[in-house]
Amino acid sequence: MEINRSYLISNKGYELLNKIFVNAGEGILIADSKGQIKLANDRANLLFGYEGLELENKSVEDLIPSHLRKHHVNHRSNYIKNPTTRPMGSGRDLVGLKKSGDEFPLEISLSHMKHEGEHLVIAFVTDISQRKKQELALAESRSKLENYTQQLENKVKERTRELEHLNLGLESQIRERKLAEQALKESLEEIKKAEKEILKALEKEKELNEMKTRFISMASHEFKTPLTTVLSSANLLAKYTQTDEQDKRQRHIDKIKSSVQNLNNILNDFLSLERLESGHIQVNSKEITLNELLLQIKDNFEHTLKKGQKITFDFKKDLTIQSDPHLIQNIVINLVSNAIKYSPDQKPVSVITDCDDDEVIIKVIDQGIGIPEADQKNLFERFFRAGNVSNIGGTGLGLNIVKRYLDLLNGKISFTSKVGEGTTFMIRFPSVLK
């Protein structure tokens, strides 16, 4: 079986997926059940020292040192028999082989999919050379610190023995011993403090790597359904050539638009989270007519509304505020999108604005499926999804992003919900952002 890169850019939805695949921060390799590489992104080429399409049709064993290849063939065969999403080589140090013959340490997470009847294995590859250097530096630092501490302790003990043989009544010698003990105590505290800082930095790096891997795995799964819909509808459009089949064509065009919007929402979630995590989002406050700003976003939902759904806006007052319009738009779009997605046909969605002293209040109200009480305490956690939405697509990032945007606006979010009756989200933020 041969996979052609051109299928990744056959339409707008595939173009989005191609960008994520090609520009991902981790190396991504896709191989068939025989271990033959079918696709590799730019990062994978860089990691292993290849260019262009050199990696395609090579065996994954070509990327492994020769003395490990035999064992890897057995591991690969066993994985194909029982494929799961998991880290590779848990508890072992993994080594990759560059085209130049140089070896380097790496981490690999495995996922799998089935395409055109063929089992494919997806490997997410991370070069951990820098981490290994840090771990080695930490070990060397600990060794030096331990030696230094031992030397200090030996000196203190030696000095103490000398003092015990001298006149213990001499106050000057007693003060010297106490000063030495205090110096040792302070040195040990500094050692512990430095060790905690290094461990904290390593844990943060590990957490970020796990989050990236988890998102890529999740995005691969979430892209599958809308991309399948786009491909199916695009193929069916070619069959409706008659004028009286316009309704059928339009139905499939609407499906394509909705699926592309879904893909765009997933990509926006990823980009927003990445910018928040890296601290690149700046608050730009300006004078805003809030009612006009909210009406401008109404067209965003044209292709996502279900049959019989309507969005109504109820402005209690004509509000002119000083805040960041981009952040406010993103917050409201996210909340309204959720209200539409988790509501059935014919059920309306309402947006109400008001003010209370120096605070702006915006409510988004739906009559949808509601949020189970047991899930409500975890609703704003990253990647969390309620137990009653498993059949509805989503990243589990939207509400976490909304809360973090509101933190930037010095605002707050609260909600009330009942299963089967609907949910009301209320956000509050200062009318003048200082």
Describe the model.
- The chain has 434 residues and is α+β, with helices and mostly antiparallel strands.
- The protein folds into three domains: 5-127, Beta-Lactamase (2-Layer Sandwich), CATH 3.30.450; 129-280; 282-430, Heat Shock Protein 90 (2-Layer Sandwich), CATH 3.30.565.10.
- It is built from nine helices and 13 strands.
- The chain has helices at 12-23, 42-48, 66-81, 129-165, 171-237, 246-278, 290-296, 325-341, 398-408, and strands spanning 27-32, 37-40, 86-88, 94-97, 103-115, 118-127, 286-289, 311-315, 320-323, 349-356, 359-366, 412-418, 422-430.
- Strands 1, 2, 3, 4, 5 and 6 form a six-stranded antiparallel sheet that branches. It has a five-stranded mixed sheet with strand order 8-10-11-13-12, with helices on one face.
- Helix 1 (12-23) runs parallel beside helix 6 (246-278), helix 4 (129-165) packs antiparallel against helix 5 and helix 8 (325-341) runs antiparallel to helix 9 (398-408).
- The protein is flat, with a radius of gyration of 30 Å.
